[in-house]
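Lab manual, section 2.4: Encoding a predicted structure.

Procedure: take the sequence of the chain (73 residues), apply the prediction step described in section 2.3, and record the output as structure tokens. A sample record is shown.
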Amino acid sequence: MSDIKFEIIKKIGVLSTSASGWTKQLNLISWNDRDPKYDIREWSPGGEKMGKGVTLSKEELVALKELLNRIKL
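Recorded output:
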């Protein structure tokens, strides 16, 4: 299996932190030298390991924001 290359272009924020120190983050990431996309996934405390996540284009992020705005909490 080939290595996945990534570059965190912008750290946007932390959504949550687990008891083990892993953080669920929203970041702007370039995967394999492609155009950056918004990414939600868990990262280990030092940032050397990552969990599975969701990658969204700007248009998908805007659509998600609109859907979340409809939720009454």
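Check your result against the sample. The mean pLDDT is 95.
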